[in-house]
Amino acid sequence: MSINSSLETGEISFGFDELFFSRTDAGGIIKYGNGVFQHIAAYEWEELLEKPHKIIRHPDMPRAVFWLLWHTIKQGQPIGAFVKNRAKDGRHYWVFAIVTPIEGGYLSVRLRPSSDVLAVVKREYAALAELERRERLAPADSAALLLARLQELGFDNYGEFLATAIGAELAARDAALAHPPEPSIGYFGRLNTAAKKLIVNANRIADAYAVNEAVPFNFRVLAAQLGQDGAAIGIISSNYTLLSNEMKSKIADFIAAAQGVAKAINDGAFLVATARVQQELLSFFETEQSACPLPREPEMRLLDDQQHAYRAHAAEGLQDIAKKIEGFQQTCSDMTRLAAGLEVTRIMGKVECSRHTSVKDRLDELLNDLESFQKTIADALKEIERTNHAIRVEAQGLIAHARAA
Fold it and tell me: Which of 150, 170, 190, 272 could cysteine-pair with 155, CB 3.0–4.6 Å?
């Protein structure tokens, strides 16, 4: 073991190669752990086994984090988090924990964190824990504040933060252990950046629509003012209204599709990373001299089943990314068709405008609004098409890498 302590900070340090795990039942009671877990916690096995896992919880930890963990795993979903733990002697140690549901309980696999994300997490946790104490916040309310704070930091949701964090930690760990960079981390990083661009441009279209939502009504008012002479403008208005209403019904689906691509990418990144860490843990545990008094073989089988299951989940996640991208491409095609219809409507209005000098200024104003709207949509869709192409290329490369691994 390469465990040591700092007398100044009271922090326990352990090697990047020292992965550890603990298994609990559904109520959080410790049923098993490996040697690194017991050694770092500094408890004897009889003090750990059949005891609540919170025996190692540090009081500095915001309760919001554990609320999110339990809320997620109770739904049968895996999750990860930075956690500050406390050993029996009062010293502390930081881990990045990946918690996964298993039959009859949960498995927590931990590694040493060292990326730049950790410094941000330490600062944010300290502020949130202080707020919890001062305001006497309920864990669920504190969790809501944590998620809101993540958005302020640039993450759309916890899933995006989690994917970013685990990628950063594995990259830092590889560097510390002099391992070659893991290609999938780069693929997912680029995919995440591209997915955020999709959402930004989808929201650009939604915002532009909101600004111009009254244009069809204004066309109808103008047509009514012209009476019989406004019949052609009335038809243009009707066409625009039909296109506008169809676009309105598509925009929510459009944004949801973009968000679906982003979620599939983030979920895929976490699943691939989880599968890798579990596989490395199994290899480590096979050679570790564990002092746990309970039989080792059942745990080996459980870990082996887990890593195979998550490798399968990771493969499914990659296929889900591909499906989401194809679905979004179809939604883009629908939006492009509507944008083309708006352009035709604008040109028809421009021609009709020259015939009505009495309302030319007002018509010009409305047509300029329509042109600006149409241009915003066209520009956003072009950017989305370029981004979507980049995502397809990266996704294909990632899938090819996974198959070759």
Answer: 150
Measured CA to CA, the distance from residue 304 to residue 12 in angstroms comes to 29
User: Which residue bears the tokens 């298993």?
Assistant: 102
**Which residues partner with 177 through β-bridges?**
none
CB of 390 within 8 A of CB of 187? Answer: no
pLDDT above 80 for 3: no
- Please say if the pLDDT value at position 265 is more than 50: yes
The DSSP call for residue 29 is: B
Instruction: Report the Cα 358 to chain-centroid distance in Å.
Output: 55
The pTM of this model reads 0.88
Statement: residue 1 has pLDDT above 60: no
Interatomic CA distance for residues 162 and 192, integer angstroms: 12
Altogether, the residues listed in the chain come to a count of 405
Stretch among 28-32, 146-150, 236-240, 382-386 having the lowest mean pLDDT? 236-240
pLDDT in tens, 156-179: 999 999 999 999 999 999 999 999
Per-residue burial over 44-69, b if 16 or more Cβ lie within 10 Å, else e, is ebeebbeeebeebebeebbbbbbbbb
The whole-chain average pLDDT of the chain stands at 89
177-191 pLDDT per residue, tens: 999 999 999 999 999
Reported as a pLDDT band with limits 50, 70 and 90, residue 42 is: very high
End-to-end CA distance of the chain: 30
H/E run at residue 96: strand 92-102
Residue in the structure block whose two tokens are 């309920």: 138
Nearest to 12 by CA among 63, 62, 56: 56
Widest pairwise Cα distance in the chain? 94
Tokens of 346: 């604008």
SS3 of 182, please? Answer: coil
Q: Is the pLDDT of residue 9 over 70?
A: no
Q: What's the angle, vertex CA 380, arms to CA 375 and CA 382, rounded to 5?
A: 95
Nearest to 287, CA basis, from 15, 55, 17, 102: 17
Which residues are CB-neighbours of 381 under 8 A, at least 6 positions away?
201, 205, 332, 335, 336, 339
Which phi and psi (to 5°) does residue 8 adopt? -75, -40
How far is the C-alpha of 101 from the C-alpha of 81, rounded, in Å? Answer: 15
State the Cα–Cα distance between residues 402 and 405, nearest whole angstrom: 5
Amino acid at 39: H
Above 90 in pLDDT, residue 243? Answer: no
